[in-house]
Fold each of these.
Amino acid sequence: MSYNITLIPGDGIGPELTEATRRVLEASGVKFNWDIVHAGVDVMEECGTPLPPAVVESIRKNKVALKGPITTPVGSGFRSVNVALRKELELYTCLRPCKSYPGAPTYYNDIDLIIVRENMEDLYAGIEFEQGSEQAKKLTQLISEMGGQIRDDAGISIKPISEFGSRRIVKWAFEYARANKRKKVTAVHKANIMKYSDGLFLRVAREVAAEYSDIEFEDRIVDNMTMQLVKKPQMYDVLVCPNLYGDVISDLCAGLVGGLGLAPGANIGDTIALFEPTHGSAPKYKGMNKANPMAQMLSGVMMLRHLGEVEAADRVEQAIAAVVAEGKQVTYDLLPEPEQKRAVGTAQVADAIIAHMG
Ligand code: NAD
């Protein structure tokens, strides 16, 4: 049997990483029909849109996709293709495991964290009003009539957090915890300040937790959470977060296990799953055969598990772990600064992993 998978190489370092990952996944013995479709900055120049409809159509048809990172211009320009895909396909869960691989450059050696990030709401909803625009003026006026105060030279981003979205993501986190024999779920919030958005998220999280008496539940205010994760990450298990905190905490946890080069992820809906690393397109390394492909490959490992190819997933993951542990055929980011001259390239990491799989 072979699996129909949508493959989106992305831009920046994406094409090199997805190529290295494709080779490793094929070496696992699992058969794939790759439906290769393009999105991102290069496509924008050619097609006038960074997300041609063929990309979404392919994912809808195949139900499973592997995606490289895609650049989002900072401050102006087109909106995030990554966020658009999550919204368009209703991929409401972002699942990001952060796990220690011995040999990675980090102060911690026993981390096994799962971040469950709400993927559709919060400040990521894309409801924004530009400084000086008619809409911003109207909204400022309306808010002032309701007793609030916004300076008239403000830009405005709206933070919606719904009961439906909160319940759906917290339930997902508890179901994941139960299915994967996890002991504790921690809800992350700032409900002391944002009483009606984060406060709602926390209230719903408490209600859902009451339905899962077999799993421990606690909550943490997000600023305290970041400190606790740096000081004693071993105390935590599954973290369930609204969108923005989930984004920030994902990178923090990636740092705990040795960097973004080892942090995979998945965007999951009811019927569709799209696998991509936590990191971005690192444009400064584009085309240099320099970036670490392991986060992209570990996203591929998550995809293999999703497809039920557990044995192949284990073999690929063990080969990646062995290459990290040996420390000989690794990219610059997995080496201490003085040793970075002996780093190998993206493609050579793939070769080493394939050789380990025999
Ligand atoms: P980034 O993740 O691309 O890079 C952050 C840092 O990590 C950089 O120093 C980079 O050199 C390093 N890094 C990242 N991936 C690496 C890898 N595989 N191997 C070695 N080093 C690696 O974040 P950024 O610089 O903030 O963003 C760059 C672009 O990526 C932006 O346009 C951003 O919007 C986009 N982005 C896309 C996604 C996605 O596609 N899902 C996610 C995050 C950021």
Note: The two ends are 22 Å apart (CA to CA).
Amino acid sequence: MEREISGEILNIPEHVAVIMDGNGRWAKKRHLPRNFGHSEGAKAIERACENADELGIKYLTVYAFSTENWKRSVEEVTGIMNIFRKYLVDSIERSNRENMRVRIIGKREGLPEDIIEKMRNLENATAGNTGLQFTVAINYGGRDELTRAVKKIADKYKKNELELDDITEALISKNLDTWELPEPDLLIRTSGELRTSNFLPWQIAYTEFYFTDILWPDFDMENFIAAIRYYNKRERRFGGVR
Ligand code: IPE
Ligand code: IPE
Ligand code: MG
């Protein structure tokens, strides 16, 4: 979709995925505890949703907590879980005001019961919203997601609900947590790391990557537009020739 943004015509990606990295370094630079960075990071998520909506992006998917992030200190993990608790509750009213639908992907198992409950409430409360389709990856790991998908498929095969030839790429996609979402057109990673850290490995096979040194709590509209400008310069061939 083309859109004029302050006099500039931009081709807006339908689905943008973001690895929100750099909260810890943002806090460290200010001699603050890491969890301050995570609180600022949560504010940056709200801003990113507003900006995505204003830019005409239909799907925004963000990586908030990985299956590997449990390796961090109890203090940091507890702080992050408390931020989720507040975010999941506060988001209901805000999302409904903005017609935003929120989905949560990742492994529910291993998360505190009350957080699972709050996730369900937020998803149910916003299920009818047709504006920005916002997805948060919490306790998400791409390998874990694929492992769970393989188990679901194997179970159906065992029960004779599937034949071997029914196992196609489309069937695998339909058994992932992202089954309702199109594949990301653009992946943004902040904070200067050049890796994907187990985020959406199946789904980003043909996604364009944009890396920026900006730390996540600082990510603003200007940075968002810079990412889209970069995306506009890429020629997507999907294996073909142009
Ligand atoms: C990203 O910021 C947020 C999470 C992974 C929860 P980090 O906490 O990884 O920040 P850095 O990479 O240490 O700066
Ligand atoms: C990726 O960031 C996970 C999230 C943004 C939630 P990390 O900071 O955990 O990734 P690594 O350790 O740099 O690969
Ligand atoms: Mg990091």
Note: Residues 74-97 form the longest helix (24 residues).
Amino acid sequence: MVVANIWYTIIMFFNLFNSDTPVHMREIKLFNTETGKLEIFEPYNDKEVRVYTCGPTVYDYAHIGNLRSYVFSDILKRVLIKNGYQVKHTINYTDFGHLTDDADAGEDKMMKGLKREGLPVSLDAMRQLSDKFIKAFDDDLEELHVIPPTTWARASDYIKKQISLIKTLEEKGFTYETSDGLYFDISKFPKYGRLGKINLDKLKSGARVEVNSDKKHPADFAVWKKGELGWNSRWGKGFPGWHVECSAMAIATLGKQIDIHTGGIDHISTHHNAEIAQSEAATGKTFAKYWMHNAFITIDNTKVSKSLGNTITMRHLMDRGFSGDDYRYWLLTAHYRSTTNFSWDALKGAKQALFRLKRHMYEEFKQKTSTPDSDYLEKFDTYLANDLDTPAAIALMWDMLKDDKLSDTTKCGTLMAMDEVLDIGLSDNLYEGVRSLGVVAADDLPADIQELIDRREAARIARNWAEADMLRDAIKLKGFELEDTTHGPKVTKAE
Ligand code: AMP
Ligand code: ZN
């Protein structure tokens, strides 16, 4: 993280003082969900790119699927920076008002969280709940080397902005009131549903009438929900509809027109179409120029989802001895637009590959570096500029390592330069790097040691400290040292 931040600061500093003549290194192509095509990236303003990323609903730990969204937007940001752009980036924290069903039905996720944690139903308790999961989410992103956005926008800090946006929509005639809230009337916004080409007629004929009989059209969505809990407004007590927060905070932090909006594909049909409708109805301007969406992470080919109860979190990965670098590397071996199935074996394979890369870097090259090879680097950057093709970039990195024509110092320099975008732990300082190599890779452990480690982890999780200590001693007797770190247990061969 520290490395990532320093690097980012240097680039931003450099860009700032050279901002009169932006030099963009190469043409960037991005897949725009709105047109369904790869498009050449041309921002509104040549000097600064404005990116908005839909953030997490902070009622629980983020799962490994959610985390893909932020590694994806991180790579996007680094590629833009690498190509000479300054990037202004906002990610939000949804800390109220997101129902389990995006179309105004289901239970409020924050309420669900309050119940689970045994907290009272109050705004203060909601804040307390979200504080806890915001901290956990920030830790996850740090572990994954995601550069923090320019602005973290917390929805409950932007209530006035949201109310003012809703007022504008009402004054311009885009809303109607019902017994339970204020709704956006999509019939007033003929371009509704252009993202993902939603078939509104089909939606109407297939609608569940019992969901909300007051709505004129099933795709109309709440911009204000009346309720016992919330804030006061001219529509009664309650809270802004979930979609409003992203429109209001994107406009407040980045302006009326943004260059790129990112999120997971599940947000295309409802959340992002609603964002477009609200923002464009209010400002009269095109909201986002490029819409980019990451595909799902699945487990057993089923979407990872809190509601399906099949979630794995960063903590689960770390408890099994995997680091943020390992998961980041695994994610980057797949393209962000490919549905990717998670398995422990696949992650183990990624960990071993990364271990070998680090061994080259820290053991073989001892991080002695010279100028990167320009041909490989150019090819690498060109792959990334082609809709963030990280799998091709990583394959090239391995080809480069095998190339006998390059010296070790050139290979090392090239790896370091590649790590500016990948940030998978190849440019840590030598001491840290060597230290991490002392660790025995998960698959190099003898089966009996692995079994003892697993038993000790189970004892530790059950807070059975006496048994955990006994097992640590047993491991030591067999010649291995065990150290508990924030990355999970680290195993080294005892000297
Ligand atoms: P949420 O907290 O549910 O709003 O989700 C945060 C981000 O994670 C959103 O951009 C979602 O689209 C994305 N997301 C949710 N589930 C998955 C998944 N299984 N794989 C990839 N992205 C996901
Ligand atoms: Zn959003």
Note: The first strand starts at residue 29 and ends at 32.
Amino acid sequence: MALLPILSYPDPRLRTIAEPVKDVNDEIRVLIDDMFETMYDAQGIGLAATQVDRHIQLIVMDLSEDKNEPMVFINPKVTPLIEDKKPYEEGCLSVPDVYDKVERPTKVRIEALDADGQKIDKEVEGLLAVCIQHEMDHLNGVIFVDYLSRLKQTRARDKVRKVIKARGKQPQPVKR
Ligand code: K1U
Ligand code: ZN
């Protein structure tokens, strides 16, 4: 398995529209494993292939406390089931240390394929509904800060720049 670099806002590659996966094969399953390793390492609950510069319709997620309930969504289609929207405090591994409320429909239907190419069709609420909509946005080149004011977007850019600079100053592991 491998840790993949995560693109940071405002990298223009985050605006790429993802293509459908044609064949759920071993190459895709290797990418899925690498995305899980990357997501767990970054302490995220979700990751879209766009964020690791792979522009295909693939999302991984694990909302469990013990990080032992991995979910994979390939070629996902997400349909809101109710008009009612509620705000939820979101974060994003591509916008480190920035959190803000976004309003989204609270109940959605997810149709997708899993890592074995089997069909998924389920109605979800709560954090899973929030997270799948956030990840779907990534596949469509949308980032959660796009829903915020211009001022907050500018602050988010500045914050990300500072976080990345600070990370660069951290001691790096010695390569042997
Ligand atoms: O897409 C991503 O960058 C992953 C993102 C998913 C997400 C979290 C919260 C609301 C919507 C979408 C994260 O995992 S951000 C990481 C994080 O700090 C976090 C983890 C658990 C709950 C809330 C935030
Ligand atoms: Zn995100």
Note: Helices lie at 26-41, 126-139, 150-169.
